[in-house]
Amino acid sequence: MLVKKAMSKKVVSVSVPGNRETALEKMRKRKISALPVVKKDSKKLAGLITRSDIIVNPDEEQIAMLMSRDLVTVKSNDDLEEAAKRMVDNTLRRLPVVNDDDELVGIISSFDIVANALVKFDADDSIEEYMLNNVPTTWDETPLNVAFEIMRQFGLKTILGLNNFGKLSSILTETDFITESEIISEMTEHSSTVGTEGDKWSWDSTSVLYIEKNHLKFTDKLVRDVSPENIDTVNTKTKVSDCAKKMKAGNFEQIPVLDVEGELVGIVRASDLIKAIL
Q1: What pLDDT sits at residue 253?
Q2: What is the domain count for the chain?
Q3: Can you tell me the mean pLDDT for 186-198?
Q4: Domain range spanning residue 29?
Q5: DSSP letter for each residue of the chain
């Protein structure tokens, strides 16, 4: 299968020059995690901006300063396996698709490969060898700001919530956190005191520094308030193709994994599952 058979052709993008709020609003409205950046009044690819770029750099407002410029791309006539290889080799979830003039013609994600190719995968491989075992979890009554920090410490874009019995009850992604937050500016006061001594006199000299800093402010909701009510799961013995079908049907980029006894053991992401075609 070629890239053009699986890629998204109707691409939502932003242009430079442009500001953070424009990008963030499009991400929230479309519930997407990344936007290709094109040069103003053209289709020439200039970069890529992700939710993570905005989260990590809340003080930066210009898209040009937030976006990634050193991009990995594919052409529409490239083989889908090559696109998957580039994603895996560079730890990416998506690739812009460009023509010979470096103009943006589409975008392909690991989910696109799962939904269009792996659903037809004819093999006995189980997802066990592709899943992540070390996944952030938290109590489903944890406030969002605490849950986000736990997720961030793991370097992942998903966190799972457990109920009072230690059973899987919630799943939140970076998209959920963005939806339930806003970037606000706060002024903090920092003072320092320097003592100076003479033969007969001493005094303290105090300097005050005011620092304005942006950060994400979350709503007062708990993890369980934001999570979908019904959570689909797979087990360690689920075949790759069956897992891909479930992801496609539910439009999931990741899905929790249970063992044969129903206990949570990890998660499998589209970006992990595409390794099955390599």
Answers
A1: 93
A2: 3
A3: 55
A4: 3-116
A5: -BHHHHSBSS---EEES-BHHHHHHHHHHHT-SEEEEEETTS-BEEEEEEHHHHHH-TT--BHHHHSB-S---B-TTSBHHHHHHHHHHTT-SEEEEE-TT-BEEEEEEHHHHHHHTGGG-----BGGGT-BS---EEETTSBHHHHHHHHHHHT-SEEEEE-TTS-EEEEEEHHHHHHTEEEEEEEEEEEEEEEEE-SS-EEEEEEEEEEEEEEEEE-S-BHHHHS-SS---EETT-BHHHHHHHHHHHT-SEEEEE-TTS-EEEEEEHHHHGGGG-
